[in-house]
Write a structure and sequence with these properties.
3 domains, single chain, alpha/beta, 27% strand, Rossmann fold, globular, 470 residues, eight-stranded mixed sheet, five-stranded antiparallel sheet, Lipocalin
């Protein structure tokens, strides 16, 4: 909970089954290729996939959790031992152990001291078809076009979907920008696809929508974890340039819609481009990154009825970690640095909570060193928003614990006032969470249990606002 993130991997686990002794032990080459399954976490069913490669040195692999928008997670240790496949994913503190029987792997995913069953199958097999829920595909009154374009500055190709309404004239268009962490074009999270829903709704209202796989995700090139927020700004600019190049898009009516950190990226783009027709910020930060992360953790812990001492210690640890990151500047934070923080003179963590913080920090070390996180930590949205002159719509949910509505909307409003921008609408929407679902607590654990992907009222508000400006 030290640095809660919307798209962090949820707790996953499993239970090992008995090996059928009459079955011959598998060879490494039998494991090469793709494996998929569904993990039951309470009432939630999450898709999980492993991609295994056999090399001269043994096995290598990556892991996907597509319903959470996580793809290409490195498997730090992949090996086959006495017929048992062992896949360790250090980045999330998890491990899969499964017995290989024919074309199935029956095993467990272990993380944070918990276990849940996870059976893996070959994609397309009869066994996989029996457990994978089919998504219905409805006829749509618009064109869905697969697009690719280049970010010349980073020399990578980006891929996405452009939905185009039927029109004899060039139309207004929005580029969608996702929040922190690697996201696919639909912003898949816990069985919901909010960007796909937004694109469908707005395209039916005559607005072209382009949604794109983040770099290093899906069909887009590049590497997400080694990239910075400034790189994502350049990716967004490449998307705008692509839309500008199309004869069926009106270059005077191209805007940006960003969710969470995507709203910050959108603001950065709008601050430097005077050809942006409109900016929509959904649950976007309006206060400095460090202040937001401290507030986010406090809100989430409070919502879970955490002990007051734990909340106090959590903030103290965060502050010390952030201070150390600033001191290191562009040097990596190490496990030794984290131990020093926990063991500093006087102590900021009680003995009873020391293991909790040590495990949490260890799991988050990769993220703490990622360029995108460092830049988010140092960011100040108000600096960019004070330079934005295009029309702005900013929406936040009253139950958003990740980007709390009141302080962030106040920051956005104050910055836009400094810019002299008068075409501004800001709304705190009662009862909605970070994903703009109608929620009870606002905690991320609720996201998967809520059937609603995004409130229809929010969709209508966005559609009406854009239509009035297109």
């Amino acid at each position: 909970m030290i640095l809660p993130r919307r798209n962090a991997i949820c707790v996953l686990a499993g239970l090992c089954c008995l090996l059928i002794l009459s079955q011959p032990l598998p060879a490494q080459q039998d494991l090469a290729g793709d494996w998929e399954g569904r993990l039951k976490v309470g009432a939630t069913s999450l898709r999980v996939a492993f991609h295994i490669t056999v090399t001269e040195d043994g096995l290598t692999a990556t892991m996907d959790s597509p319903d959470q928008g996580a793809t290409g997670l490195p498997v730090s240790d992949a090996r086959l031992h006495n017929g048992e496949l062992i896949l360790t994913v250090a980045a999330v503190g998890g491990q899969y152990r499964g017995k290989v029987v024919a074309q199935e792997i029956d095993g467990v995913w272990q993380q944070s001291g918990r276990e849940f069953p996870l059976k893996l199958y070959r994609p397309g097999s009869d066994a996989a078809a029996a457990v994978v829920e089919e998504e219905s595909v409805l006829p749509i009154p618009y064109s869905a076009i697969e697009v690719t374009y280049r970010n010349e500055k980073s020399d990578i190709e980006l891929a996405g979907t452009l939905t185009m309404p039927e029109s004899d004239q060039p139309v207004a268009a929005l580029l969608l920008l996702s929040g922190s962490g690697p996201q696919d074009r639909d912003q898949n999270i816990l069985g919901h696809r909010p960007f796909a829903v937004i694109a469908d709704y707005l395209t039916r209202r005559g607005i072209a929508i382009m949604r794109v796989d983040d770099r290093g995700v899906g069909k887009s090139g590049g590497d997400f974890n080694s990239s910075s927020e400034s790189d994502f700004v350049e990716d967004a600019i490449a998307g705008l340039n692509y839309l500008n190049s199309r004869s069926d898009v009106d270059p005077a009516k191209i805007g940006l819609l960003g969710h969470s950190e995507g709203g910050l990226i959108a603001a950065r783009v709008a601050a430097q481009r005077r050809d942006i027709a409109m900016l929509i910020m959904l649950a976007a930060p309006g206060i400095p990154g460090e202040e937001l992360l401290l507030l986010q953790a406090e809100k989430m812990l409070t919502a879970t009825n955490a002990d007051a001492n734990l909340i106090r210690e959590n903030r103290a640890v965060q502050e010390q970690v952030f201070l150390r990151i600033r001191e290191l500047f562009d040097q990596p934070l190490t496990q030794t640095d984290l131990e020093a923080i926990l063991n500093q003179s006087g102590g900021i963590v009680s003995a009873s909570n020391r293991t909790y913080f040590r495990d949490a920090l260890k799991q988050q070390l990769t993220m703490l060193n990622a360029p995108w996180f460092r830049e988010l930590l140092m960011s100040d949205p108000m600096h960019y928003l004070a330079q934005v002159i295009c029309p702005v719509l900013a929406l936040n949910g009253s139950k958003d614990l990740q980007v709390p509505a009141a302080p962030n909307l106040a920051g956005i409003e104050a910055a836009l006032n400094r810019s002299g921008n008068r075409d501004v609408e800001l709304h705190e929407l009662r009862g909605l969470n970070h994903l703009f679902q109608t929620a009870e607590t606002g905690l991320p654990e609720e996201y998967a249990t809520i059937k609603e992907t995004i409130s229809p009222d929010v969709l209508k508000m966005i559609g009406d606002w854009v239509s009035a400006r297109k």
